[in-house]
DNA sequence: ATTATACGCAACCCAGAGGTTGCGGATTGG
DNA sequence: CCAATCCGCAACCTCTGGGTTGCGTATAAT
């Protein structure tokens, strides 16, 4: 999993990690111990998750005295969204090509990737 | 990984799986054998990946004669994007609150989650 | 009918993820 | 100084994920 996009998606695949991301999106910073208090796992487990998030570039750590505070760096989230959007665009243009090919009627632009219908 | 969102992110975490998704976004359908020809893994490996994608709701299979054709169903991608967008929104509103709190100046809306700077 | 193609199922292998416990080392507080 | 926190490192365990090989079976082609 050396590619950046893969690391981001992998980071978001775990529920505990998603909880951490959401938590850090709301409060400004948090420590592993604080987060562990709200999760069904130990502090070390949370520390590992934070390491994974840091590896994906989603989080930055800063030591303050005896505690290590983590902060969200949501940049890579945009990259992940871009990837999904790219797939949606290819899907849409393929649909447009198909539609245009089937009937010469006015081929209006389709929106983004739509929900399951 | 019983939660739907987790399954989608987990599906997108693997490079081969992402390749399959992109491939299916362009061509209309494909078989496991066809995809395996473009990937450094065996047909069975691709079949497992397709099963995972199907489990995440990203793909549907249809048997046609002796071959099984797979088609992309991009609905769940929107759900994944929504999750990311939700985090971005919370992040933005927190920033807005902070900015409004620090200085009474006109608090213009921030954009979406921005790229790494 | 026989051969070739495409699939599914099952067993198996191995590395890594997620988790725990057990320390030892800083830092803060009395 | 001594006790209480907070952290990081390391060992360990278990289970799943990605991958392979092997085989049986159904459909298609000759």
Structure in words:
2 copies of one chain form a homodimer. The first copy, chain A, is mainly alpha-helical and 117 residues long. The first copy, chain A, has a domain at 4-74: Winged helix-like DNA-binding domain superfamily/Winged helix DNA-binding domain (Arc Repressor Mutant, subunit A), CATH 1.10.10.10. In chain A, 59% of the residues lie in helices and 12% in strands. Chain A contains 5 helices and 3 strands. A 3-stranded antiparallel β-sheet of chain A has the order 1-3-2. The longest helix of chain A is centred in the C-terminal third of the chain and has 28 residues, at 75-102. The interface between A and B is large, with 43 and 43 residues. Chain A binds a DNA duplex (30 and 30 nucleotides) through residues 14, 16, 31-33, 41-45, 47-49, 52, 63, 65-68.
Give the strand tally of chain A: 3
Strand content of chain A: 5-15%
CATH class identity of the domain at 4-74 in chain A: Mainly Alpha
Uncertain regions spanning at least 5 consecutive residues of chain A:
106-112
At CATH level 2, the architecture of the domain at 4-74 in chain A is Orthogonal Bundle
Over the alpha carbons, how many angstroms does the gyration radius of chain A reach? 20 Å
Oligomer category: homodimer
Shape of chain A: elongated
Number of helices of chain A: 5
Tell me the CATH superfamily of the domain at 4-74 in chain A: Winged helix-like DNA-binding domain superfamily/Winged helix DNA-binding domain
Reading side by side through the largest sheet of chain A, how are the strands ordered? Answer: 1-3-2
